[in-house]
Automatic annotation (TrEMBL):
The chain crosses the membrane at residues 9-29, 41-61, 82-108, 120-143. Keywords: Membrane, Transmembrane, Transmembrane helix. This is DUF2798 domain-containing protein. It comes from the Bacteria. It holds the Pfam family DUF2798. It comes from Eubacterium album. The keyword Hydrolase does not apply.
Length: 152
């Protein structure tokens, strides 16, 4: 896990790329009725703006709040590292999913107007299970492994 601000920034960038790419692929697949080969390439067009949004939201809002709340639930000095990781991860998902779903709705679903809230809630509900399982079982372990190899 990151030990200073530089490492935290690198870790966040890595996690953002892995999470955002998967979630953009997922949302495009949901919009077109299922996963198709073109989705992998199509997701690249949304990746830059969504990564910037995710980095800013995680760095300045979700990350600090998730850690603050997590450290009320677990103690990094006493609890097993896996419990600390899970607490921060789950709280990050809980905060990031609604925020990133809102960004996606505003930028890509043309839902301005009276349906904005309804489309945002539906998008968040659809995205939450994917974000949860992808973070806990794929993105989190992958990024922590790569990060650990880079910063031994």
């Amino acid at each position: 896990m990151p030990k200073n601000r530089k490492e935290e920034t690198i870790y966040t960038i890595m996690m953002v790329i892995v999470m955002v790419y998967a979630m953009v692929c997922y949302n495009i697949a949901m919009d077109v009725g299922g996963m198709k080969n073109f989705v992998f390439l199509a997701a690249l067009s949304e990746l830059p703006i969504m990564c910037i949004a995710a980095f800013l939201l995680d760095t300045f809002i979700a990350g600090p709040i998730a850690k603050k709340v997590a450290f009320r639930l677990v103690n990094p000095k006493e609890d097993k590292p896996i419990f600390v990781i899970l607490a921060i991860s789950v709280l990050s998902i809980w905060l990031m999913c609604p925020m990133m779903s809102f960004v996606a709705v505003v930028l890509f679903k043309n839902a301005f107007g009276p349906q904005l809230i309804a489309v945002w809630i539906q998008t968040t509900i659809i995205n939450f299970p994917m974000a949860f399982f992808w973070q806990l079982f794929a993105a989190g372990p992958l990024v922590r492994t790569i990060f650990g190899k880079i910063f031994k």
